[in-house]
Design a protein that fits this description.
The structure holds two protein chains of two kinds. By secondary structure, chain A is an alpha/beta fold. Chain A is 24% helix and 34% strand. In chain A, the strands form three sheets. In chain A, strands 5, 6, 8, 10, 11, 13, 15, 16, 18, 20 and 22 form an eleven-stranded mixed sheet that branches. In chain A, strand 3 and strand 4 form a beta hairpin. Helix content of chain B is 36%, strand content 27%. In chain B, helix 5 runs parallel beside helix 6. By secondary structure, chain B is an alpha/beta fold. In chain B, the strands form three sheets. Chain B has a six-stranded mixed sheet, sandwiched between helices. In chain B, strands 2-1-4-5 form a four-stranded antiparallel sheet. The model of chain B has no long low-confidence stretch (mean pLDDT 91). Chain B has nine helices and twelve strands. The chains are: A alpha/beta, B alpha/beta. Chains A and B meet through helix 10 and helix 11 of A and helix 2, strand 7 and helix 3 of B.
């Protein structure tokens, strides 16, 4: 960072008091139900035996077991990161169970426990007929195991592989081995190392040369069992000229204790390939006093390995007690493009430290960052982003826009943009705004007959428009609804 | 029969009394101009009538169509037919103008127990009103007031009024910041909406707006009260002579109440 421009800005704008704001700060978490299903879990605790057992349960080849053990051994040498603007209670990694699966493993969708399907129905996951109607292929991960993948035949005909990671390791070992850890190495960071050691399932997507994936692919994650962590691993590979759009949704039931979720997502785009990755994250955020909720520590990274490739991240983050997440793009191929569109909403005592990294290595690489933070209650919402232009990245361009919207006067919004520019010809632009839902805007809506709650969600929706536009239609609708629920009564 | 009856209204903001016993009666179809020096409570009147937060009514009453207007929430006042055209229309980034207007109209209709308009019927209504207002439908596709010129913002206010069809429209210094062409356009829009059952309170600092929107009555608001009422010739007199002469007939007014000549 020595020869670079490096700036840190911290904006904590005070907002005028509004007596009714506090009174009305109540929110319902609609996905907070527990499904009563018998499950098999490993005993709490983490050591080499647990890692071996986990690998054995999953019937993994030896190379995978060794890979996990190497990751575990490295993890032991690493300190927990503490640089984020997050206040995290100590995590006892020995009290977590690293594997939980519903008993009676399902072989096909028809064999899936009806109770499970009911759960998904409540969540609005489009399995079964609804999936067909929506044209979405869903890989549903329930706690640690992938319970059913829809549309497999249709995808297979197109040459697309879309299956659980466990199955991929067994059935497509060479492919997995060639790419796993090639974007996020085992030793990349504390949580990535932990994930590499104990990941239980996730999705694997492979789009062969020249194939445009015929439908949106989707995964739904849900943490159900008590005292379990969820460590999923997703790997998406798009070969030359391939295209795929992948959606991910997440929920968890209400619980008093904090649950750990440490995922790793790796994307590889070869020449002229395009990957669009969208997330709607609605993990249980904890109650209004900050009790319970998911710790969401996620490493997501895309590698634009081929020339003219493109990776686009879109995320709507409304859940989790703590979010630590920086979906990034390594722009290695010449003229490759990275995009990051984000809406992060925090309420009550939620904390989010999220953003992106754009690493420009190839010539004429371009990146665009649009980050929208919404803070309410006593929450803390930080944008942290790195734009790095390497020496050889001639003609690289970045545009960054960070906007914060504050609701109430006890929340905080912070912006930490880092820039490292080693090529003098690069163009890096950064714009940032902090605003609040003003009394003027609110009164303007009221004076036209629009009630307060509707006015707030309308203003917030307008604020997020740039990002929602990037989401596939049905996700955009869900995201909008999610914000409305999350902000219920946030302004009085 | 009065549409609006304001009786001995006292109101304050942040502890400071601005309206000090204002009384005014408006019948259906009438246009009343409220003039007066700066800082005498002209905008406060519009804000109090439409229910803006932060204004405290300490005395007096406001009856609208037989109801106690002050007992209603701001959005309810809109639904019963009170419309405030803002002096400074507010920008709402990312919210489509048409979407906003439809949400407003349907919220009002719902409150009144009328059925909500679907997009087809709403669009038909909008097209009709666009014609009357002579504004391009390009404005409809933009976000509410975002990046609008001063004239466009004011025209958008009048357009909203045309769609919402209020019984009482309060125009708060709608002429401020407009050049003569924009002023004429806005006035034409207002005139097109005059009807036997719609009343207007035209709050203005300048007589020139009244050349285009002809008032039935002109009132002078000074020191927080209506101190003089007359027909449109009163506005001409104010333009020619300013406000100072009012001190002769109203010795209770302080000099400060009459500062700020109108032209």
């Amino acid at each position: 960072m020595n020869e670079s421009e490096n700036m840190t800005r911290d904006v904590a704008a005070p907002v005028r008091d509004n007596a009714e704001v506090e009174a009305a700060l109540n929110r319902r978490y609609e996905a907070g139900f527990v499904t009563d299903i018998e499950s098999t879990s490993l005993p709490p605790g983490l050591n080499e035996d647990i890692v071996r057992q986990l690998s054995a349960i999953k019937g993994e080849p030896e190379w995978m077991t060794e890979w996990r053990l190497a990751a575990y051994r490295h993890w032991l040498t690493m300190p927990e990161p503490d640089w984020a603007k997050l206040d995290i209670a100590p995590i006892d990694y020995q009290s977590v169970s690293y594997y939980s699966a519903p008993k009676a493993g399902p072989k096909s969708l028809d064999e899936v426990d009806p109770k499970l399907l009911e759960t998904y129905e409540k969540l609005g996951v489009p399995l079964h007929e609804r999936a067909k109607l929506a044209g979405v292929a869903v890989d549903a991960v329930f706690d640690s195991v992938s319970v059913g993948t829809t549309f497999r035949k249709e995808l297979a005909e197109a040459g697309v592989i879309f299956c659980s990671m466990s199955e991929a390791i067994r059935e497509h070992g060479d492919l997995v081995r060639a790419y796993l850890g090639s974007v996020v190495p085992v030793a990349d960071n504390y949580f990535a190392a932990l994930n590499s050691a104990v990941f239980s399932d996730g999705s694997f997507v492979f789009i062969p040369k020249g194939v445009r994936c015929p439908m949106e692919l989707s995964t739904y994650f849900r943490i159900n069992a008590v005292n379990t962590g969820q460590f999923e691993r997703t790997l998406i590979v798009a070969e030359d000229d391939a295209y795929v759009s992948y959606l991910e949704g997440c929920t968890a039931p209400m619980r008093d204790e904090n649950q750990l979720h440490a995922a790793v997502v790796e994307l590889v785009a070869l020449e002229r390939a395009q990957i669009k990755y969208s997330t709607v994250q609605n993990w249980y955020p904890g109650d209004e006093n900050g009790v319970g909720g998911i710790y969401n520590f996620v490493t997501k990274r895309g590698d634009c390995r081929g020339a003219d490739s493109k990776i686009s991240w879109t995320q709507v983050e409304t859940g989790s007690a703590i979010t630590w997440k920086y979906p990034s793009c390594v722009l290695r191929g010449d003229r490759s493009v990275g995009e990051f569109y984000s809406v992060a909403l925090t309420h009550h005592r939620q904390q989010a430290d999220t953003g992106t990294k754009m690493i420009h290595i190839g010539k004429h690489t371009k990146s665009k960052i649009v980050a929208k933070g919404i803070s309410a209650g006593r929450s803390s919402n930080s944008y942290r982003g790195l734009v790095k232009i390497e020496k050889g990245a001639d003609g690289a361009r970045n545009y960054t826009q960070c906007d914060s919207l504050l609701i109430g006067k006890k929340c905080g919004a912070h912006t930490f943009p880092y820039m490292e520019v080693k090529n003098p010809g690069a163009i890096v632009e950064h714009e940032a705004t902090t605003s609040k839902i003003s009394d003027d805007q609110l009164f303007y809506c009221l004076s036209r007959g629009i009630g307060e709650e509707d006015a707030v969600s309308m203003i917030v929706d307008g604020f997020c428009k740039q990002v929602f536009r990037e989401l596939p239609m049905e996700f955009a609708v869900e995201a909008k609804k999610l914000l409305e629920v999350s902000l219920e009564g946030a302004v009085g | 029969m009065h549409m609006l009856k304001i009786d001995n209204l006292h109101a304050r903001i942040e502890g400071k009394e601005i309206l000090k016993g204002l009384s005014l009666e408006v019948k259906p179809g009438e246009v009343h101009a409220i003039m007066g020096p700066n800082g005498t409570g002209k905008s406060t009147l519009g804000n109090v009538l439409s229910g803006r937060d932060g204004y405290e009514v300490t005395e007096g009453s406001v009856t609208f169509d037989g109801r106690d207007l002050l007992a209603l929430e701001p959005e309810e006042r809109a639904a019963v037919g009170v419309f405030l055209a803002f002096q400074y229309p507010v920008e709402i980034p990312g919210v489509n103008n048409t979407y906003f207007l439809r949400a407003a109209l349907n919220a009002q209709r719902k409150f009144r127990g009328e059925d909500e308009l679907d997009s087809m019927r709403f669009l038909k209504l909008v097209r009709e009103k666009l014609k009357i207002m002579q504004i391009s439908d390009e404005l409809l596709h933009r976000a509410v007031n975002e990046g609008f010129s001063g004239g466009e913002k004011k025209r958008n206010e009048i357009f909203q009024m045309a769609v919402l069809e209020p019984k009482l429209a309060i125009l708060d210094e709608t002429d401020s910041g407009l050049d003569i062409d924009a002023l004429k356009q806005v006035a034409e829009g207002v005139n097109a909406l005059r009807s036997p059952d719609r009343s207007f309170l035209v709050v203005t600092h300048y007589q020139r707006l009244l050349d285009y929107i002809e008032p039935d009555f002109v009132h002078v608001l000074a020191g927080g009260r209506i101190v003089e009422s007359g027909d449109k010739t009163l506005a001409l007199k104010l333009e020619a002579e300013g406000y100072a002469w009012l001190a002769d007939t109203h010795p209770e007014l302080r000099k400060a109440d009459l500062a700020g000549a109108p032209a």
